[in-house]
Amino acid sequence: MISLAFDSKTGQLILIALLVMIGSFYTGTLFGNNSTLLIPSSSSLSESESSSSGNSSFRNKVVLTYRTKTISIHEVGMNVCPLTYNEYIPCHNPSYIKELLPKLNVSRREELERHCPPLNKRLFCLVPPPIDYKLPIKWPTSRDYVWRSNVNHTHLAEVKGGQNWVHEQNQLWYFPGGGTHFKHGAPEYIQRLGNMTTNETGDLRSAGVVTVLDVGCGVASFSAYLLPLDIQTMSFAPKDGHENQIQFALERGIGAMISSLSTKQLPYPTSSFDMVHCSRCRVDFHENDGILLKEVDRLLRPNGYFVYSAPPAYRKDKDYPLIWDKLVNLTAAMCWKLTARQVQTAIWVKQENRSCRMQNGDNMLVNICDAVDDSKISWNSPLKNCIQLSHEREDKRILPLRPQRLSIYWERLHDIGIIPVYVYDRH
Ligand SMILES: *[C@@H]1O[C@H](CO)[C@@H](O)[C@H](O)[C@H]1NC(C)=O
Ligand SMILES: *[C@@H]1O[C@H](CO)[C@@H](O)[C@H](O)[C@H]1NC(C)=O
Ligand SMILES: *[C@@H]1O[C@H](CO)[C@@H](O)[C@H](O)[C@H]1NC(C)=O
Ligand SMILES: *[C@@H]1O[C@H](CO)[C@@H](O)[C@H](O)[C@H]1NC(C)=O
Ligand SMILES: *[C@@H]1O[C@H](CO)[C@@H](O)[C@H](O)[C@H]1NC(C)=O
Ligand SMILES: *[C@@H]1O[C@H](CO)[C@@H](O)[C@H](O)[C@H]1NC(C)=O
Ligand SMILES: *[C@@H]1O[C@H](CO)[C@@H](O)[C@H](O)[C@H]1NC(C)=O
Predict the structure, then answer these.
(1) What is the residue-wise DSSP string for 392-423?
(2) Which atom of ligand 7 is nearest to the CA of 360?
(3) Cα-to-centroid distance, 327 and ligand 3 (Å)
């Protein structure tokens, strides 16, 4: 049975987090360059509101409109982009990226990152839904079914149907809960990860996992099946040859973002996740001196897990053994501990061992980042090829599980200027 352990508080928190994410995503595009946004005065706003009940003066057009120097929104609303733009996502436009390609570092997968065109090439019309768009099916049914016409892609089902990502079923997309690495369904795979992190005695939740970052999430079935354990997952994947996988995830009602591990830090603060998960995520963690593993190190909480289910962890052919050796050396230099390697998965723990990190830094095995500036905003920051030393006071500070976690004051908040205020005492 799937019990949805979502209390309303958690729901609100997630909603706020999503709003903040959406907000930060769009501020980059809409308000990025100090140009003024002209909004109609309140009198004309109420006029347009009243005209929506009567329809005489509603004059919006379907027309491709680009951003002008000072954005102006007409009194009666905005223009609607042509239907062919129904898949348009700001700063993820394949034809613009093709134009940029000669300037991008493809060996670092820079082409998968966000690239915003110059101001005058940014659309400024409302993106229309596809033809025959229907109100999305509600959770929990949407975990398994969404309307076929709401996500007008077929390529993913064609190439990934055999791995049980998604199948077409008449008017619906059906998600059997599989993935490239877990063809037989995410629940069994998740149980195995629980066994591996607890010596067969518990599940991921009892291993202390509450927040997960899923790298290269596909249609995000992993996240969907962690919910019954009350584990919250942020999933991301690039908009790549598989078309937009994230659109399936979002249509299912699973939180996800278009993003990639390439040249920039992910937009999350240091120590955000109890687990970073990659199953066949097609990220070359061993390349470039392990700079992407160092980003994972930044994102992981002390004693957090890095779960790696990919061919180098289990195959002996091609150059997989060499890649595995590189991963072992890089993770050892960062003082991670390989705690389990079985079936097709390897799991490391980001151990809290300050002296090990200092020692490896002194021996030039790894770079230690300059004076800890982990309160700096990670949005659009280049990756750093170094690891941080933990604050000494944090060494013994392991967060408890929820609900206690929601109300404790973590001292790191102090560094970003958040001071606890005790308004009243319940006792
Ligand atoms: C909108 O306009 C149409 C045709 O002009 C009219 O039949 C309809 O009643 C109007 N709707 C409202 C809500 O005024
Ligand atoms: C791409 O990045 C790699 C790794 O940092 C670097 O060695 C290479 O010179 C870069 N290539 C270009 C074309 O900038
Ligand atoms: C889906 O896209 C195709 C072209 O890519 C188009 O012909 C078709 O009308 C679209 N279907 C819907 C439901 O929007
Ligand atoms: C996990 O461990 C339990 C108890 O030891 C066992 O019954 C179960 O089959 C294991 N699950 C997997 C997927 O290995
Ligand atoms: C599992 O057992 C091994 C060997 O007894 C031990 O070293 C390891 O710390 C245990 N791991 C967990 C998560 O309890
Ligand atoms: C890993 O480290 C060992 C010992 O320092 C070294 O001999 C080996 O060449 C390294 N392997 C790779 C693939 O870098
Ligand atoms: C920390 O690292 C040092 C140096 O690698 C090692 O000697 C020590 O045993 C480690 N401590 C723990 C608690 O693992």
Answers:
(1) GGGTT-PPPPTTHHHH---THHHHTT------
(2) 5
(3) 44
